[in-house]
TrEMBL record:
<dbReference type="Pfam" id="PF05726">
    <property type="entry name" value="Pirin_C"/>
</dbReference>
<dbReference type="InterPro" id="IPR011051">
    <property type="entry name" value="RmlC_Cupin_sf"/>
</dbReference>
<dbReference type="Pfam" id="PF02678">
    <property type="entry name" value="Pirin"/>
</dbReference>
<dbReference type="InterPro" id="IPR012093">
    <property type="entry name" value="Pirin"/>
</dbReference>
<keyword id="KW-0408">Iron</keyword>
<comment type="similarity">
    <text>Belongs to the pirin family.</text>
</comment>
<dbReference type="GO" id="GO:0046872">
    <property type="term" value="F:metal ion binding"/>
</dbReference>
<feature type="binding site">
    <location>
        <position position="82"/>
    </location>
    <ligand>
        <name>Fe cation</name>
    </ligand>
</feature>
<feature type="domain" description="Pirin C-terminal">
    <location>
        <begin position="157"/>
        <end position="271"/>
    </location>
</feature>
<feature type="domain" description="Pirin N-terminal">
    <location>
        <begin position="3"/>
        <end position="99"/>
    </location>
</feature>
<dbReference type="InterPro" id="IPR014710">
    <property type="entry name" value="RmlC-like_jellyroll"/>
</dbReference>
<feature type="binding site">
    <location>
        <position position="36"/>
    </location>
    <ligand>
        <name>Fe cation</name>
    </ligand>
</feature>
<dbReference type="InterPro" id="IPR008778">
    <property type="entry name" value="Pirin_C_dom"/>
</dbReference>
<feature type="binding site">
    <location>
        <position position="38"/>
    </location>
    <ligand>
        <name>Fe cation</name>
    </ligand>
</feature>
<protein>
    <submittedName>
        <fullName>Pirin family protein</fullName>
    </submittedName>
</protein>
<dbReference type="InterPro" id="IPR003829">
    <property type="entry name" value="Pirin_N_dom"/>
</dbReference>
<keyword id="KW-0479">Metal-binding</keyword>
Length: 303
């Protein structure tokens, strides 16, 4: 499968508590990801096309499909697998994001939840027709998702009609970023950011065209952002209160120290009960890669 990663960047490791953003698709493929572990994070799976069967070590066995949020909270340890629902390659497209858990939750018990009904708000038009936002995680414009969160955060799908410009409300004290899923979109921006990202400061003027492979970092101190589209667009907004700590992120683990990562890797390789066993799986599993020959350090932002 082809996967494109937009976050983390070398200079931008987090946006709020969001620490990872992958897009797998659109493509025709057969997904077969055997059991593998996670610590210290929540996985947010937001599908656009196709179906994937999710199974995990807390007993979940669900089909991931368009319109439903699938949220897995690892706490101190969880394992899961992701398989296509059929035996043949099929159309598939989704975003998979990670949220770093704060100190108060990252050592807790694992959990999984699926939400098929999520709230929507209207995006007020500047020109043309109103847009719409589905609030996947956290809160936007005074409306909150039912999904469980542990830091002030937002993850929302934005839909902009053709020929329209809409105003998206933002929390002024939070940082935010945008990525296009489909179509064309432009926002006010001027300052170039790290590779794969663009940074925008409050008060900048001008328009920049967005695409599906670059993350636009909006920074903080914004009450809103105006997004326009000539032919219609779908975007994903992520943001939140700047995270409480720098993190160590390696393979499928989010921690705070090199030693934590080493301990988790050794536990997985030893078949520890820390990660449980994925429902209906035998001994198949993804082995942990070798650790690098250097000490893992915390990721520090430079923007």
């Amino acid at each position: 499968m082809e996967v494109h990663r937009s976050l983390p960047q070398r200079d931008l490791p987090l946006v709020g508590a969001w620490c990872f953003l992958d897009r797998f698709g659109p493509q025709v493929a057969r997904m077969r990801v055997d059991p593998h572990p996670h610590i210290g994070l929540q996985t947010v799976t937001w599908p656009y096309q196709g179906e994937v069967r999710h199974r995990d070590s807390v007993g979940s066995d669900v089909v991931v499909r368009r319109g439903a949020l699938n949220l897995m909270t690892s706490g101190a340890g969880i394992s899961h697998s992701e398989y296509s629902t059929g035996e043949d390659a099929a159309a598939i497209d989704a975003l998979q994001l990670w949220v770093a858990l704060p100190e108060s939750r990252r050592h807790g018990a694992p959990a999984f939840e699926q939400h098929a009904v999520l709230p929507e708000i209207e995006l007020v038009p500047v020109t043309g027709d109103p847009g719409a936002a589905t609030i996947v995680l956290g809160a936007l414009g005074g409306t909150a998702s039912p999904a469980t969160t542990y830091t002030p955060i937002v993850g929302a799908e934005l839909r902009i009609p053709a020929g329209s410009s809409v105003r998206v409300p933002l929390e002024r004290a939070w940082e935010h970023a945008l990525i296009v899923v489909a179509g064309d979109a432009a926002v006010a921006v001027s300052t170039a950011g790290p590779e794969g990202a663009a940074s925008v400061s409050s008060g900048d003027d001008g328009d920049v065209d967005l695409d599906t492979t670059h993350l636009l970092y909006l920074g903080i101190h914004r009450d809103d952002v105006v997004i326009s589209s000539a032919n219609g667009a779908t975007l994903f907004l992520l943001g939140g209160e700047p995270f409480e700590d720098d993190i160590v992120m390696w393979w499928n683990f989010v921690g705070r120290t090199h030693e934590e990562i080493v301990e988790a890797r050794e536990a997985w390789e030893a078949g520890s009960e820390r990660f449980g066993r994925v429902i209906d799986h035998g001994d198949e599993r993804i082995p942990a890669p070798p650790l690098p020959a250097v000490r893992l350090t915390r990721r520090r932002r430079r923007v």
